[in-house]
Records
---
Amino acid sequence: MAPKKAVAKPAATAKKAAPKVAPKKGTKAKKDAKGKKAAAAPAAPAKSAPPLFDKRPKNWGIGQDLPPKRDLTRYVKWPLYIRRQRQKRCLQKRLRVPPAINQFNNPVDRHTKKELMKFALKYKPESKMEKRARLRKEAEAKVKDAKAPAAPKRAELKCGIQRVTRLIEQKRAKLVMIAHDVDPIEVVLFLPALCKKMEVPYCIIKGKANLGRLVGLKTASCAAFLDIASSDKPSFDKLLDAVKLSYNDRYEEINRKWGGLSFSRKSKQRQAVKAKAMAKP
């Protein structure tokens, strides 16, 4: 028999990798110490002083902190009469206002008005209580003596458009005061022309409430001086001179001056942009 051939044995398999063993304590630290410098330990934070005021954040949720106050004018739905007042005032600025109406936008200056009001308070009409007391004294005097003369009534201001118009036509009014904000303006529109024709001094006072205060009412469209005490004539003459200089002597000039045509800020900006565009070559 033939001898058996030797069979080549396969190459020896690679040795199995030895299992990883946990490093001994202190081994890694030693390696780090040799290779790298150990990282520096973080510094402890410095202690800050306590704040003077504690933080109290606001909570704007429903039912929580109140929100800060804001101007809510543009969100308000104003009553109709206020809207009408503002629309009227805006229209009078934008539209061209004729001189007869525009003259009511030029009331007397502050100093003359102050002196006029102070003087007119002396001639304020008597109230109901004062009138009752005066009539009672007259009645008591009549009971004692039937021939007792009635006490003379003191001079006082006259108000009301019909009464003042009648006094101007009769040339009995010494000075006429007209409110600048009467509504409708047609009620007093003719008074300046009538005063000029009858040569009665007149002036325009700012506020019908101011005139009403002089005669014991809420408002008054006009008021007139009728009789002046002899002791008050020097001061009254000074007021007349100032009023005539401002109104009666300047009547023709005032009646040539138109008003209105003052544009809003947006309109002026728009016009400026148009003018700038047209000026470019």
---
Amino acid sequence: AAPRLRDRAASWRELAGRIAGDPSASAWSSVGDDTGQTNAADATDSTTAIPTGLAAPAPRLGDWRVRVRVGSLSRADRYLLGPEFGQPIPRPIGLPTHWRHGSPVLRPRSDWAVTQASYLSARCAVIDGLLTDSALHEVQQYAQHGAHFAATRNGYLGCFPADGATHPILLSLANELAAALHGIFAPHALALWWLFKYSECGGDGIGLHADPAAVNVNIWLTEEVARVSGGGLLIYNHVPPLEQPVAAANHEFDSPAAEEALRRRLRGQAGVTEVPYACNRAVVFVSDQYHESQPFQFRPGYTNRRCNLTLLFGDRWSV
């Protein structure tokens, strides 16, 4: 068989063996030919070349479905990723453009001062109709059809900047928020953002946690006609001390009972703010506050799946 076909077959055999839990599944004794030497013709072909000098690590048994660091991938894994891996993700072909770069993202409004005062006094503000129609449709389309959802979680998919979620509308949104709500965002630069969309029509959403940042902005994107019940946000008014480690505020609980115990304690300390779901509604709050999704039920259908955009600004120590 041709060297390229032989290499591809070896890669697939190794991957299948690791999935099946066979620690002896590695079929990569060489790259390019059976002598252990790199095939010069293949090494100069950018579509099939495999980096030399990369020793295949021990099989990662039992965790083949989780995200792993690129540096820990075997030569077989890298070969199967193909030459497009690591390249910018293009905009899906054939989708109409609703928003043009440089066009407004935020809807004009006269109550920015009220919003800012609410945040500064209560550590939380709700903004209805945040995005213009064109900006909302653009982000909705990006969330529904973009190929950048590489993070898999229990019940939902996520995309982060490292996954290719770098639409210019996101930076424009951050800049316009800083201009409109100077007293909230001016001291804090945009630090991280993500999109989450849920794999089922109903569920519990994101559990109890706090995000390590100064300001948290959560925007719901799915049209309200899709919602049957729930889907809002619960924000616990107690603000943890700055000395609290990030891992203590954002982690998987050992059990539902442990999560419920913290939930009861937070309610007793300072109460909770309930923000009902609404499409194009933004919730701006101090990111250190614990929060969680309300259980939800949305109508069947892919475009009806609950989806939200989150932006984090600044560092928790700069509040």
---
Amino acid sequence: FFGNWKMAEEGGKQDMLLYASDNPECWKVSIMLEELKAPYNLAESSSTEEKNDDLEPTLIDCTLKPPFKINQSGAILMYLAEKFGSSLLPSDFQAKMKVIQWVTWQTSKFAPIASHLIHMKRIKHENDSAKVNQIHKEIEEFETQMIELYSDLNKKLDERDYICGDQRGSYSIADIMCYPHASLHWWIGVNISKFENLVRWLRIMRNKPGVKKGVRVPGKSELGSKVPIFADIDSDEKILKTIEEHETKESYFRVDDLKKLFSDK
């Protein structure tokens, strides 16, 4: 992986400083930085004494005096687009508002529902049978909402290559915001094969150089040294098949199952 980032101790003090881990919220910012070809330093998210909060991603613009710190992926992307004068956020007021509309759609609807499903299917453990049944009901409700959101995005992409813009659309921060969670449909546990426009758009996005680099930041999994990063799992048909077969025969494929899969390797 050759992106525009360096570890903090290797980089200059006048670049951007990004606190990030291997998750879709952070990929939004790293993709944006890679698309802008902006030099940035990568810091460990565990360095809470430097970050001073639990939010990630966190971006510190060290090109300013004093340095400017900003949280929340949507705000960070808008900040970077404005700072660098990027066409990823249109200068035309109405076109800009349409992009921001999809940014807020992603942060207020798409990402929260996706994150709830990931938490309940992959992380949450419950042994009490009554609570297990309640969780299954909640999962079904969230899955219904998630499918509706995927459907909304699929409709928007009808005869379009990008979410916003005239005719077939123009690449914007709306696409960058929506891609990370949308690409994790296999981990969210929703089959999107019937959404042809969405599948086509995911393929377009996946092949962009900035996206290819951005989803590999910071380059290591939070689940242990033996577990691949999500970008590698996403491209490994054998692992994806294992997850699918597990859920067909048993139950939800959890984080612990993923760790176990690589524990002996």
---
Amino acid sequence: NKFRPLIHTTQAYLFSTMSRGGAIVKAGEKIGLKQMFDDDSSTYTYLLWDESTKDAILVDPVDLQVDRDLTAVKELGLNLVYGINTHAHADHITGTHLLKQKVDGLKSVISEASKAAADLKVAPGDRIMFGSRYIEVRATPGHTEGCVSYVADDESFVMTGDALLIQGCGRTDFQGGSSETLYDSVHSQLFTLPESCTVYPAHDYKGRTDSSIGNEKSTNPRLGLGKTKDDFVEIMANLNLAYPKKIDVAVPANMRCGVPDV
């Protein structure tokens, strides 16, 4: 099997091998989390860290907010190791390229299925380690063919990207999207998580910050409420959404890991 530097293969997450000796995650200790919002693209960026080692990762960084993100890293005394994307976004340019220029040793991460450039590529089941904690990769294509969601090691929360939004979901009409695929992804990979699991989406347009798997299963007007796949496909086919205003700039840049067109 191909070596994946992000994987920790031990099934029990309470003990995790570190570079010098071992580490113990105390029962009930949560991953540190700071949610940050970009008003222009309505994008949420997530800063996660190990409370003990202070190693940290950024999920879905925005290029125009890199200085804000690094200020938060400094204020919290963290060591930022990875800049990670849930997929190649169409509404903003990722901040990973700028982060790599400003943070020595930082690596960019995206799914293999996205076919986008990054230092490290992940596949379903991979675990992205930071300190003694990790997030696990789940394939949730449908919005794009390369979408993944990231589940906390204790399943207390999941970062769903554009696959599952609060009371909605990402569109499925470009970038290899498929309504049938998205329905299957959400029901098999996300709705099977504990109902108490907090849902942290990549976007929200109404000022909401989070939801839960149980709430989305019971009330999401597109994917919950007992909606069938046929119901969902019909709903998505009749959204009549406008063409994303930044897609022609954002997608090519994001396929290059945020490197601007020169």
